[in-house]
Amino acid sequence: MSAVKKSKTYHFNKDWEEEFFFCMVKDKCICVICRASVAIPKRGNLERHHKTVHKNYQKDFPPQSELRKRKLSDFISCLKKEQPMFTRPAKQSKAATILAKHKKPFEDGSVVKEAFIEAGETLFGNFKNKTEIMSAIRELQLSRPTVTRRIEVMSQDIADKLKHDIMECTYFSLQFDESTDMTDTAQLCIFIRIVFNDMSAKEEFLTIIPLKGKTRGEDIYEVFFNFVKNYDIPIYKLVCITTDGAPAMTGNKNGFVALCRANEEFPSFFSFHCIIYQQVLCSKVLNTEEIMGIATKIVNSIRARSLQRRLFQLQLEDRESAEHTDLILHTDVRWLSRGKFLQRFQELLPEITASTSKATL
Q1: Is the separation of the CB atoms in 23 and 33 below 8 Å?
Q2: How far apart are CA 227 and CA 190, in angstroms?
Q3: Cα-based angle 224, 173, 189 (whole degrees, multiple of 5)
Q4: What is the pLDDT of residues 129-182, one digit of tens each?
Q5: What integer best gives the mean pLDDT of the chain?
Q6: What are the residue ranges spanned by the domains of the chain?
Q7: DSSP string spanning 214-266?
Q8: How far apart, in whole angstroms, are the C-alpha atoms of residue 258 and residue 216?
Q9: Cβ neighbours of residue 155 under 8 Å, at least 6 residues apart?
């Protein structure tokens, strides 16, 4: 058998900086004169570039002369000054994400910058590098157009990463929710769960599509199918669709799921109603009256008496690690309130036991 040929590794020699005016910048061999880069940092490539493109430097700046060393030093310092011009905006752009994270208007960035400058004059008054700090604050770009542009770039980057994950995944499932917003516009929200080859899963918000006309099953199907075509979604990886119980979604003939099954481009997939409905049905079937009766009676005994409730709240405030400040009541109207009620009851069980024991004494 023939031996496997090993690829040769080339290492940059520090002496080549002065000899050929090249230096290494982030694993790239770059000419400090013209900023050109070579694919492989070996002596022949550097020498060929220097003698071909910058042949006059051998005469103007003789080798091993002080003039050549000073010229090299000037080129390297100029290159180092250019690098922060690209890295600094990337760090400053993080300030723009604060407005989006807290759901604040983008025009508030100018107010934040002005307040920061005013506070900086006092906070950094005794600092030796106050001038540099204040200069860095004034260079922050937080105007509304700048913040908007940066948010749009980040949004596009997130969309590209999600599309890459969809293309690389093994299977995915979709969750649909159609509801009307405050402006009476029907919105179709689509969530996606992605499964990769290593069995790792990832859940993301895929898109939201406005339904300007009717919200029939064929309307929802048409909007979704156009979205799949426009964004090149690999629909053959679909394994499951979960919807709510609306007739437009679950109709046998003209429902959204039925129309998807009728399309030959869709694979064979499972379909479910919203998982919340399943949990509600499960809670109705399970016989928890004995547990709910005792827990409800204890909670009502604390909540019904004003003094008892105030003392219980003071007891929770004295406990520094307590996450809750009061008990919650149970109602059959709200979905899943039984689970939340029992969870809060279980988390505060030590305090409830101490409170009831004091009350009996």
Answers
A1: no
A2: 11
A3: 45
A4: 788 888 877 877 778 888 888 888 888 888 889 999 999 999 999 999 888 877
A5: 80
A6: 16-82, 88-146, 169-273, 289-360
A7: ---HHHHHHHHHHHHHHTT--GGGEEEEEE-S-HHHH-TTTSHHHHHHHSTTS
A8: 12
A9: none
In which residue are the tokens 């013209």 written? 34
**Which whole-number Å values give the CA distances from 26 to 37, 62, 67, 123, in the listed order?**
12, 29, 27, 37
Residue 307 CB-half CA count within 13 A = 3
Question: How many Å apart are CA 195 and CA 238, to the nearest integer?
Answer: 11
**Residue located via tokens 């009996």:** 360
- Look at residues 141, 87, 137, 145 and name the one whose alpha carbon lies nearest to residue 116: 137
Q: Residue 212 CB: number of other CB atoms within 10 A?
A: 9
Report residue 118 as tokens.
Answer: 């005013």
Residue whose entry in the numeric block shows the structure tokens 């909007």:
223
CATH code that applies to domain 169-273? 3.30.420
> Token pair 């604050």 is at which residue?
137
Tell me the per-residue pLDDT of 316-336, one tens digit each, with 9 for 90 and over.
877 765 567 777 776 555 444
Distance CA 160, CA 206 (A): 11
Sequence-separated (6 or more) residues with CB below 8 Å from residue 75: 21, 32, 33
Report whether pLDDT(2) > 80: no
Q: Which of 315, 306, 322, 325 is nearest to 357 (CA)?
A: 315
